[in-house]
Specification:
Helix content is about 45%, strand content about 10%. The chain is an alpha/beta fold.
């Protein structure tokens, strides 16, 4: 896992939200966006779970390339996507479409758009791998301006569901509890907070049991 402002000239990256955290789960997508000049058509599609950093990656991409990002495709009309596609071909500036799923699962009725989308590369961000979870927890607390103990991310990482949704919810739960109690978030605080709870993930997700005492 590396922490980096994306390798080609991602001008302004640190002004947006700090460096993008690159790990095995998103490295392929990052590499693809770094090399937009080699795309077979001027459009690519980025998919991935909500809260996976796909929107941040899109903003960095737009800053670096001067291209257009549609975030998200859901709710866009066929005509608007078709015009965006044609504009990218005419201007030679890349178009990045961000979506929950690949085009084969979109409700596209315009035949010309469907055929064009079928020719576009699709790259995916996976759920976070083990090397990303702790740095992501640390980053989310940092973005909130919340002070935590240095050992907290490493303590939480193996104990929560490996999903962006659960990680974000865990950080929110702990941050709100610490603000209410006027306490710094430490391992003892987290252990006490989650004692007796099944898991700090989102309700209804049924993540693996949270072990407040385990190593």
């Amino acid at each position: 896992m590396s922490q980096m402002a994306l390798p080609l000239d991602w001008t302004g990256a640190k002004g947006l939200s700090g460096d993008f955290l690159v790990s095995a789960c998103n490295a392929e997508a990052v590499r693809h966006l770094e090399h937009s000049a080699t795309w077979p058509v001027r459009t690519s599609i980025l998919t991935g779970p909500a809260r996976s950093g796909r929107s941040l990656l899109g903003r960095l991409f737009a800053l670096a390339t001067g291209g257009t990002v549609v975030d998200t495709v859901a709710g866009q009309s066929d005509d608007s996507l078709f015009h965006a596609w044609n504009r990218a071909q005419e201007t030679r500036l890349p178009l990045l479409l961000i979506a929950d799923a690949p085009p084969s699962e979109w409700n596209v009725t315009l035949p010309d758009l469907k055929s064009r989308l079928g020719a576009a590369p699709v790259v995916h961000i996976d759920q976070p791998d083990d090397n990303l979870i702790a740095p992501l927890i640390e980053r989310l607390f940092l973005d909130r301006g919340t002070r935590i103990s240095e050992d907290l991310p490493g303590y939480l990482a193996p104990r929560i569901e490996r999903s962006y949704a659960a990680i974000h919810q865990t950080v929110t739960n702990l941050d709100e509890a610490a603000l209410a109690d006027h306490k710094r978030i430490s391992v003892p605080f987290a252990r006490q907070f989650f004692a007796g709870r099944d898991a700090p993930g989102l309700p209804g997700l049924e993540p693996p049991p949270f072990d407040p005492t385990g190593d």
